[in-house]
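User: Please predict structures.

Assistant: First:
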Amino acid sequence: MIQLVEVTKQFDGKRQVTALDHVSLHIPKGQMVSIIGASGSGKSTLLNLVGGLDKPTRGTIALDGEKLNEVSDDDLTRVRRDKIGFIFQFFNLLPTLSCLENVSLPLHLRGWTRKKCEARARELLDLVQLGKRLEHLPEELSGGERQRVAIARALSVYPPVLLADEPTGNLDSSTGEEILRLIRDLHQRLNATVVIVTHDRNVAESCERTIRLRDGRIVEDTLR
C-alpha cells in the first residue's frame, strides 16, 4: 500500500538540513503503524511525504502503486482527496461551521449534492458518537469531541489510508485513550491503513507495528 525507496528530504536555508536520510519502508494494506522518535527525528516530515503534502529531494514514494513524486500537481490533489484522510493534533476545524458542515465540506468539494453530503456527514458523526451534536460549533465542543469531528471529516470518503499527526497530543490522558480506542475501532471496521506519528509510548505500543526514527533514519522496526 505505502512504499518508500531510498527517500531523502533536505531543507535549504542558512544551512542545509537533512530531515530524512535514505529511508526505505513498506507498509502493507490494513496495517496500523506508529512512527516515534525525538523532536527533529523526521516523523512529521515522513508523514507529510506519505500524505503528498511535500515531495522528497530524492527517492520514490508510492501509494497503492502510484508514485507520488512523479505525478502532476492535479493528480496529487486527486490522490489526497480520494485516498488519504488526515487527522491533526489541533483539529483544524473551521470555527464558523457546525459539526455537520465541517464534515460535509470535503464532500462538497468533490461536487456531491447537498443532500448526499449531509447524509454521509450524519452517518460519520453517528459513527464517532456525535449524532446529537450536528449543529454545534467547534467552540461549543470539548477537545475530545473536536477530535471526533476531525476524525469524521478525515473519513468522509472512506479513504484507504488514514494519517494521524499526534492525534492525542492536545488532549488529557483519559480523552486521549478514548480517541485512540476510536481510531483502533475504525481501523478494524474499515480495514484502513493507519499511520500515527506520536510521542506517546502508550499510543505507539497500541499499534501492531512501531517504527523508530533518529536523525532522519529508521533505527528500529518492531512488529508485534
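Second:
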Amino acid sequence: MDEGTATKILMVEDDMIIAADISLQLTKLGYQVIGINTSGVDAIKTIEGNRPDIILMDIVLTGDMNGIDAAHIILERFQIPLIFLTSNSDDATFQKAIRAKPYAFISKPFQKSDLERTLKLTVQRIAADQEIVDAQDSIDHISTMNDRLFIRHKNELVKVLLSDILYAEADRSYSKIHTDKHTYLLSVPLRTIESQLPSDVFVRIHRSYVVNLSKVDSISEYHEYLTIQSHKISIARRSKEEVVKRLKMI
C-alpha cells in the first residue's frame, strides 16, 4: 500500500443489505471499496483484474464455494491479507477457517468500532511485514555462481544447482525454492529469487510462481496451468502466450 493512498478493500458478502452497510462504514473510515462480490468465484475474478490490499470475507457464501474454500485459493494464488466475517463461531468452523491464515476474525453482529480497530491492526501488520521484507531484501540471502545458487538456509549457505530447481513460489513475505529432494524457505520476496535466475530457462508464469521450463512435463489444453512432476502450477492469463512460445523453444 502506497503512503497517502486509500487502502483498497474487497468485500465478499452474499447479503447485499449487510454488504451495503459495511461498505458505507468503510468509506466513512477512509477506505476504498473496490467491489462487493456475493460468491468466492466472483471474488477471485475481481482479484485477477483489480488486486485489493485487504479482503473482508464472509464464511457463508452462495454457490458451491464457501468463504473458507475461497480463502484457501486466495492464500495460495495471491497472498492477500484476509479478514473473516462470521456469525458461526463454533470451534469446528474456526479450526477450518484458521488454516486459511486469516489476519483476523470479526463476529457478526459487530459494532463499527470492532471493524475500525480490526482494520487498523491489519493495516499496521501489513506495514510491519513489508518493513521486514524490505530489510531482509537488503541482506545477502541468495547469490549466484555459474550453474548454482548459494542460499542461506538454517544458518548455512547451501549450494543448489540451477538444474535441480523445479520452481520458486511466493509465500506471503517469504519464498520457497522447490527441488526434487528439498524445499527451501527463504525470507526474501520472489522478485529477489527471480533476479538471480537465468531468464532463458526460468520464467515468471504467475504472480506467485517462477518455473524452470526445462522441468515442465505438460501444459493444460487451454494453457491454464502446467505440470512439473506432480505439481499443478497456475499460469496467469497475461502469461499464457509467452509461456507457450518459450516452451516451444526449449
